[in-house]
């Protein structure tokens, strides 16, 4: 498959590039500053395209890819609206999209438990509203939105899987998975396309 990865220079995005290459996919890295993008040794060939979601003229055509996986986040220095702009650009592209969202935002508010939601409000704050709006745009365009919980370091969980939000059981303790597991879950959905227009939660 030809898989485009938006936010390829980020922590999850970099893992997506590595894992997609390991799975034998042709990787197209969509990054704001190609000169600052670096891939790990042994990650395989990567096609790099400049992609600034805040400037349509600097966003490349994606008609030659099978699916876009978005791991874009809000970076320091980004003004409000970056996530919404990204969601609108990908929705307009017409390419099947797998969108990384956050458990505890929008439709999954409260799903991670009371303590987790308090932490989300403290850490994410005003960005929760923008994440929810970006999710709505992505869902209306038919994207799969993956609501990942708190992310940490570590390997891919061998038992990782995706469950629809309606089937996700609220945990007793704040949920957490590794970034590598989140990346693997995003790629699983990119390969199978099993949950179009729906919110799913990665377990592992």
Overview of this protein structure:
The chain is an alpha/beta fold and 204 residues long. The protein has a single domain, classed as Rossmann fold. Helix content is 30%, strand content 23%. It has helices spanning 11-22, 82-93, 114-123, 127-140, 179-192; strands at 2-6, 26-31, 46-50, 67-70, 97-102, 144-148, 150-152, 161-164, 176-178, 199-203. The protein has an eight-stranded mixed β-sheet with strand order 3-2-1-4-5-6-10-8, sandwiched between helices. α1 (11-22) packs across α5 and α2 packs parallel to α4 (127-140). It is globular and about 45 Å long. The two termini are 25 Å apart.
Domains, number? 1
Proportion of β residues?
Answer: 15-25%
Q: Span between N and C termini?
A: 25 Å
Order of helices and strands: EHEEEHEHHEEEEHE
Low-confidence stretches: none
Q: Structural class of the helices, strands and pairings?
A: alpha/beta
State the total count of DSSP E strands. 10
Q: Radius of gyration in whole Å, from Cα?
A: 16 Å
Tell me the major beta sheet: 8 strands, mixed
User: What's the CATH superfamily, by name?
Assistant: NAD(P)-binding Rossmann-like Domain
Choose one word for the global shape. Answer: globular
With strands numbered from the N-terminus, the spatial order across the biggest sheet is 3-2-1-4-5-6-10-8
The whole-number mean of residue pLDDT values reads: 93
Secondary structure tally, helices: 5
CATH architecture descriptor name: 3-Layer(aba) Sandwich
Named CATH topology: Rossmann fold
CATH class: Alpha Beta
The amount of helix comes to 25-40%
């Amino acid at each position: 498959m030809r898989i485009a990865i938006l936010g390829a220079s980020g922590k999850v995005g970099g893992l997506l590039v590595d894992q997609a290459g390991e799975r034998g996919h042709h990787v197209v890295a969509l990054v704001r500053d190609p000169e600052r993008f670096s891939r790990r040794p042994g990650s395989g060939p990567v096609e790099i395209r400049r992609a600034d979601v805040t400037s349509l003229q600097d966003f490349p055509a994606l008609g030659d890819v099978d699916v876009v996986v978005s791991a874009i986040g809000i970076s320091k220095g980004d003004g409000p609206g970056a996530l919404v702009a990204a969601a609108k650009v990908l929705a307009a592209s017409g390419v099947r999209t797998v969108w990384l969202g956050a458990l505890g935002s929008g439709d999954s508010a409260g799903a991670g438990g009371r303590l987790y939601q308090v932490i989300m409000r403290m850490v994410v704050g005003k960005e929760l509203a923008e994440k929810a709006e970006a999710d709505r745009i992505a869902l209306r365009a038919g994207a799969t939105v993956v609501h990942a919980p708190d992310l940490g370091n570590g390997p891919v969980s061998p038992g990782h899987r995706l469950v629809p939000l309606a089937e996700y059981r609220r945990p007793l303790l704040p949920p957490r998975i590794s970034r590598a597991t989140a990346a693997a879950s995003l790629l699983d959905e990119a390969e199978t396309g099993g949950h179009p227009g729906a919110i799913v939660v990665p377990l592992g």
